[in-house]
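Long-time lurker. I teach an intro course on protein structure, and each term I like to show students one example going from raw sequence to a predicted 3D structure in token notation. This year I'd like something fresh instead of my usual example. Would anyone be willing to generate the tokens for the chain below so I can use it in lecture? Attribution to the forum is fine with me.
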Amino acid sequence: MSGLNKGVGKVEVALKWDPAPAGAPAHDLDLVAAVFTSDDPHGTPAQLVHFGSRSPDGTITLHRDSRTGQGFGYDEAMTLELDRLADRYVRVVVGVAIQQGGGRVVFGRIAQTSVRVSQGYTELLTDDFAVAAESTAATVAEFVRDASGWTFRPLPRGFDTDPQTFGSLMGSARV
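-- Reply from a regular --
Happy to contribute to a lecture. Here you go:
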């Protein structure tokens, strides 16, 4: 296990994308975090944090939400204070869902998509969704707690589903 992976405590996940072309419906991408307990680490999330919400205990907060991708750099951001999560929580999966209000839109049709996971000044991951180019939602990272603390793992996995269903699928075990 590398030094970057051991003892992950407080991280930020940031998302950016270019706005839709003039005259086209806006591209609205949303960060989503699913929190799982030791009783059901790959099943139904105990908490689901997304657009405009935060976890009940305040450990996961979406503090910037863009509906269009307009802005400079990363314009949607979520903070995860993993070291403050109750002991019963052992897994957090972070993903991105594309709102489908203007018809089916996949990552490959949205210019300059990028997600960054960082802890302080240390960048843990940057991804452009290339592995999920034909997907409408994707997981990007998971954080797993064991006896030594929280560990970060990249989790690039595309889904072809709506944002509502994505929340219930994003933590499922690979088959």
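Some talking points for your students: Strands lie at 10-16, 29-37, 47-49, 60-64, 76-81, 89-98, 114-119, 122-127, 137-146, 149-159. Confidence is low (pLDDT under 50) at residues 1-5.
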